[in-house]
């Protein structure tokens, strides 16, 4: 979505950085970034203007309220976004980012990496760290006092705001308002994704954007059709009947394999807030509203009805595999899983819109607008502009030659065309796995995929986008929310599991919420309310 929820987010970061960074590193980095430009920036930054990139035309255009554009196939006629090398003159550019896949061959033996450096016009020296170890690695690098030129800041990194404002380049003058137009692909990122980059009156990072479509209740559309069941229940009662119709214990067929997503889905029917709601400047947690408690109670009832896999409450099921082989027919997952599951298992996947519980209006919780942030080491204007141009190049969207190279490499070496699809060669499979999408990335799109699937995904989004509900805490910063996230999540998850499994009555929910408030929930509320 391109709407700006707040005129300005003065995110303070709250307290000092990690203990590892609270000494000489911060003491020596609190002054000017050396550029002169940051000091001239307005005291109150505005989010970068959104300027859609218009040189590539999707088969199904996106909408201003959040429906993603769709492509039926990869464009063969590519647009060149850059006529020059974006990093020309930058020399060595050190980058720190995370990765999910095995590391590719090093630059010395990787033809893709060599071609990347040639196209960018700089030597990209990329340090890749497995995601499970990334926060620890980032903390160590910060404590050492020698930041790389470009570094990914994990969304749950403690005291992110203070780290960005004291250690990293102020990008306000380069990106605030209309200034973003110097970077055509960064300007193509939705406004909501920029909000978490803004602290203490300035812009201190660029976003790695994600769609706000969020979590989807995926359905095995083929199984629903085979049993003549309604793929779009009109009420909670209809939803229960659909779940019963998908369940056949003797055949090891069940509606659900996990309770958490079901509780959230029922909560959406009831209009439960998206994590927080704001009322007159005061934040109220979703946990405190009666509808949230009711959603837990209704999930417990469904467990008793017998529509959950018998091992659903153990938390060890491979849900995607069970969904793919038809053991379960409904599963809540992130929006990107639609293509993944359809392609992996060769099944007909659908998305179930949230119905109203019994009249009223349901909500669809917006997902996080970012995966992470990318920040730069403090440097002079020319250096910062070079780094921004490199990231702008990396953020080129589908339909550009830059995107095609970043995703697939050099045609004939790293991929060939098989009909309308690019297919990686053996060299491509090995070499084209640099985690560049965690440095900078284009907005996500629907497809490219077969037309029917893309149209089905599009139709689903058109139904749920009008009901999208924002989290008013998104883009705000709470040190407590980050440092205690795991502890507080475990507390609530355990309480929910005790209730839905029948070990404790629904009345125990009130005690769990009171405990959550004492152990950090109230402090998070205060930190949000004071911004």
Automatic annotation (TrEMBL):
<protein>
    <submittedName>
        <fullName>Extracellular solute-binding protein</fullName>
    </submittedName>
</protein>
<dbReference type="InterPro" id="IPR006311">
    <property type="entry name" value="TAT_signal"/>
</dbReference>
<dbReference type="Pfam" id="PF13416">
    <property type="entry name" value="SBP_bac_8"/>
</dbReference>
<dbReference type="InterPro" id="IPR006059">
    <property type="entry name" value="SBP"/>
</dbReference>
<dbReference type="InterPro" id="IPR050490">
    <property type="entry name" value="Bact_solute-bd_prot1"/>
</dbReference>
<feature type="signal peptide">
    <location>
        <begin position="1"/>
        <end position="27"/>
    </location>
</feature>
<keyword id="KW-0732">Signal</keyword>
């Amino acid at each position: 979505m391109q709407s700006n929820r707040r005129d300005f987010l003065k995110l303070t970061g709250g307290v000092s950085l990690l203990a590892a960074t609270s000494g000489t590193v911060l003491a020596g980095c609190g002054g000017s970034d050396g550029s002169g430009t940051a000091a001239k920036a307005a005291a109150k930054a505005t989010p970068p203007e959104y300027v859609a990139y218009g040189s590539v035309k999707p088969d199904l255009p996106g909408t201003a309220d959040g429906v993603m554009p769709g492509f039926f196939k990869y464009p063969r006629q590519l647009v060149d976004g850059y006529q020059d090398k974006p990093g020309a003159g930058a020399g060595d550019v050190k980058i720190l980012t995370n990765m999910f896949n095995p590391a590719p061959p090093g630059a010395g033996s990787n033809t893709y990496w060599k071609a990347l450096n040639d196209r960018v016009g700089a030597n990209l020296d990329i340090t890749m760290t497995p995601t499970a170890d990334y926060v620890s690695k980032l903390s160590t690098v910060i404590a050492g006092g020698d930041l790389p030129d470009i570094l990914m800041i994990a969304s749950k990194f403690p005291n992110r705001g203070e780290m960005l404002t004291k250690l990293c380049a102020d990008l306000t003058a380069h990106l605030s308002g209309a200034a973003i137009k110097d970077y055509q692909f960064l300007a193509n990122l939705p406004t909501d994704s920029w909000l978490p980059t803004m602290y203490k009156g300035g812009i201190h990072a660029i976003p790695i954007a994600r769609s706000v479509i969020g979590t989807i209740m995926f359905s095995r559309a083929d199984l629903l059709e085979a049993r003549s069941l309604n793929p779009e229940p009109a009420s909670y009662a209809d939803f229960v009947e659909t779940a019963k119709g998908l369940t056949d214990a003797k055949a090891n067929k069940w509606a659900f394999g996990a309770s958490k997503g079901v509780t959230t889905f029922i909560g959406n029917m009831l209009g439960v807030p998206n994590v927080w709601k704001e009322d007159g400047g005061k934040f109220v947690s979703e946990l405190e509203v009666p509808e949230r408690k009711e959603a837990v109670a209704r999930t417990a009832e469904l467990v008793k009805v017998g529509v959950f896999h018998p091992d659903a409450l153990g938390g060890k099921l491979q849900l995607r595999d069970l969904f793919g082989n038809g053991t379960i027919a409904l599963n809540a997952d992130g929006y990107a899983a639609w293509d993944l599951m359809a392609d992996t298992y060769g099944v007909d996947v659908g998305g179930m819109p949230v119905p109203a519980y019994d009249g009223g209006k349901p909500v669809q919780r917006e997902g996080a607008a970012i995966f992470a942030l990318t920040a730069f080491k403090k440097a002079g204007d020319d250096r910062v502009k070079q780094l921004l141009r490199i990231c702008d190049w990396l953020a080129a969207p589908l339909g550009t030659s830059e995107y095609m190279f970043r995703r697939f490499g050099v045609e004939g070496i790293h991929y060939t065309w098989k009909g309308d699809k690019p297919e990686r060669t053996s060299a491509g499979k090995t070499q084209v796995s640099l985690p560049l999408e965690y440095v900078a990335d284009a907005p996500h799109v629907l497809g490219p995929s077969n037309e029917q699937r893309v149209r089905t995904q599009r139709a689903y989004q058109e139904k749920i986008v009008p009901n999208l509900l924002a989290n008013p805490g998104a883009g705000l910063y709470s040190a407590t929310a980050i440092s205690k996230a795991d502890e507080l999540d475990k507390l609530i998850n355990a309480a929910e599991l005790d209730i839905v499994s029948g070990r404790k009555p629904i009345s125990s929910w009130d005690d769990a919420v009171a405990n959550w408030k004492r152990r950090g929930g109230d402090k998070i509320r205060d930190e949000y309310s004071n911004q």
